[in-house]
């Protein structure tokens, strides 16, 4: 299947990868700081105190960003788990319509999630909500990543839904696995 907005989904995938790299970098820096502190105390000196305050909180928010921003990229590349035990046994024509139904349900659920994430984000901005941890991080930052990821995912679902619907209506007998968004 050809996705017209593939560069946008790639961007989401790259941002998700960046979030994971930042998590790895921060945790590595924390570990190295602890090693330096141990070496300093073992040599009779004082702890230097190379610690990253709020590391668990920051890592958690970055993990949220990675999870949501990677949704569309993973979908476009066929990486989401699909249970095709029943659907895989159908002939092409019925399978096309079942795929349209499944994509419709996924799109409706994605739009529902996006709608409520939008209002959650709006409330966080309106009430200037911050996290409860050591660092007072504004909650609109991770919530924006969540909303952006869900919007990208809904766009990918809508593209797959439209392409699958066109095939289901015009030429259902030619429907293949590749037409349902899998590569």
TrEMBL record:
The complex comprises the extracytoplasmic solute receptor protein and the two transmembrane proteins. It is found in: Cell inner membrane. Belongs to the TRAP transporter small permease family. It holds the Pfam family DctQ. It comes from Halomonas saccharevitans. Part of the tripartite ATP-independent periplasmic (TRAP) transport system. Residues 26-163 form the Tripartite ATP-independent periplasmic transporters DctQ component domain. The keyword Transport applies. It is a multi-pass membrane protein. The keyword Transport applies. The chain crosses the membrane at residues 12-32, 52-76, 96-119, 139-162. Its main location: membrane. Keywords: Cell inner membrane, Cell membrane, Membrane, Transmembrane, Transmembrane helix, Transport. This is TRAP transporter small permease protein.
